[in-house]
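Thread: protoporphyrin IX containing FE complex, take 2
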Amino acid sequence: MVGANAHDILRLGGSMYQGYHKLYGDNFVACGKVLAAEPQVMDRALTGPQGRGPHLHGYYLRPQELPTAHDVASSLPVGSSTFLLNLPNTGNPKEAHAMIRSLLFKYLLDEKAITRGSASDDYMAQLLSDFKAGYHAAKAAGNNSWDTSHLPELVLRWTHYALLGMKLEGDDFLNVWALYLFPIQGFPPKGVEHYFRFAGTKSVTRPDGKQVDFQELRATVTTLYESAPALAAWEDSDGLTRADFCRAFCPVMAIAAIQGPLSGALGILRGDWHGEIPKDFEVPYGDRDKLRLVILETQRIRPSVFGSTAEPLNDYAVTIGGERVVFPRGTPLILNYRTAGSREAHWPEPRDFDPYGRAEQLWGPSSSFWCFNSAGDRTHGDRVNGRICPGRDLGLAFLIDLLDATAPTKST
Ligand code: HEM
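Output below.
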């Protein structure tokens, strides 16, 4: 089969999404998974129910590292999976996927989280203003790598404050940093790597040099989350005990909540001034609607999350090497956002940076934008039991604030 010689390579990383299509075409097979960038295949998968399986991109997850229900007071059977990204979404609100998502929306992704995480909040305004000062000072001094360590810190503080209401200090900060980010090393990021089959999980180094046992570190951070202000009014009758929810949330933080915004932030600011935003593009500072389009256009060119993996519940067909190939249900399917975002058939003149010309495709009722694991606003069922990224609006609001906060000042 086309691309089968890539079958055994586990660490394909980003090249699997963007480099291999030059050799094998838009759709091919690698790592025992079908990679597809065909609009119809993507649309169908993203608006229907999805089985999952132990997959994340080309990687296989370590089942023993994934969270399960521990407490008899939780309504899920003890030992059953609570790893949200892995659970199938069948549309049944009583099943684990919809139940955990509804808890996320109730406690961590409510209106208060959006307000808390925005530049109108005093703590956030201070974080953004400190970032801005350091960012411009570094640029003025010709230091283009300052943001690669300071952005992760900002994102870590923001996610914990917006979602959990926590201001990270001292050991708490060092532990969270070590669990999710340290050492900063590209893809896969540290926090994500612990969940992959090949990953070593024995010990982790904190930024202060202290060696900590990975399992203990994760347990410490999970316990820390149990005291989060956002969970103060927790009710076990909603389905999970607070402890079981925090166990489930820790890998969500590692894999989703930090990495999506961090990669998006690096995409807009990284390196020489504006990363994916062309240098001669006039950034519409102060106009949130336009800034959102600018950020979405950077996501089209270089999505924060290159793709997502499903185990389709029905047989499906994909064109490979000019032939229609049918795969049996359950064959892992990676939806390749990165290649799909650069296809002429779907995005005319894909190399042009054109946020306003593509406005309707990027955002709003007729959007079919995929990079948040949906076709625009369309997902299976509704926002709660569907598969659309539940942190989309929060993540975008942060990236808008961040880009806006880097507006040049008179002195820069
Ligand atoms: C710019 C920022 C973000 C981007 C681009 C993004 C993108 C995505 C994508 C592509 C997926 C599907 C991944 C997969 O299935 O393999 C996803 C899932 C998810 N995201 Fe985000 N995300 C962002 C921010 C956030 C934030 C701030 C949170 C906070 C809680 C979050 C929580 C989640 C969760 C829980 C899932 C799994 C949903 C499910 O499977 O039902 N994301 N996100």
